[in-house]
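User: Here's a chain of 180 residues. Predict its fold as tokens.
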Amino acid sequence: MRRRTAHALTATALTAAAFAGPVAGAVAAAELGTAGFAPGDFAALEVWPKSASPGATVTVNTTACGHGSRAEGDASTVGAGRFRLAPGTRKEVVVGQFQVAHDTRPGSYGIGVTCANGKFATGDLVVTERGPQGHVNTGVGGGTTTTTDPARIAAGAVVLAAAAVGGTWLLRRRASGTRS
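Assistant: Prediction complete.
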């Protein structure tokens, strides 16, 4: 009875893992100790930035795939789906990018990579709240503009020049002692 239960659980877990994708299937198989996976078959996946807001572009890299290799990543947990990794500028590193979906909720998400050589790499991405975007409605209005009006600048310069000339004239008149 005990053996049948173990077989049934293993079959159920592997079937569910097959529908969840290649990385999830490998993780499930490794946890169950089947399919020839050992804990050392999983390498680290560097995720940069480690935390990102929805809509941000995230870069991942790993050395698990070896020199000149390629890989496929799975970021469906953050709504990005699958993405490709290619050899990077550093030796033995593959690099790829994906964009976090705009409707992804804050939390920690697992990202996985399956290398062409059969190895796997996993890493975590923390999705944060999206910061404020756009204009802030303060009720003041007209406080800033993105355009400049040459006519207004010239008029302002004329007013300042007139004030300087008038002020100088009044000070000189006062110093000479003449009054009208």
